[in-house]
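A.,

Following up on our hallway conversation. Structure tokens first:
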């Protein structure tokens, strides 16, 4: 399975409003990109587990 990348524009203030530093915000967005389709029944738990990629 290959890796695809997407760019998500967001306001600079978003991290401030959410009280997150940029690396933490990026990881949260990555997490939610997997969690939301799982919650909606669009992604199985096994596929979701295989899709997780976190960077610190």
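Then the amino acids I'd put at each of the 56 positions:
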């Amino acid at each position: 399975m290959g890796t695809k990348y997407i760019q998500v524009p967001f306001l600079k203030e978003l991290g401030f409003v959410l009280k997150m530093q940029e690396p933490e915000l990026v990881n949260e967005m990555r997490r939610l990109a997997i969690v939301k389709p799982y919650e909606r029944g669009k992604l199985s738990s096994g596929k979701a587990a295989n899709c997780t990629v976190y960077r610190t």
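Residues 17-51 form one domain. Curious whether your intuition agrees with the design.

B.
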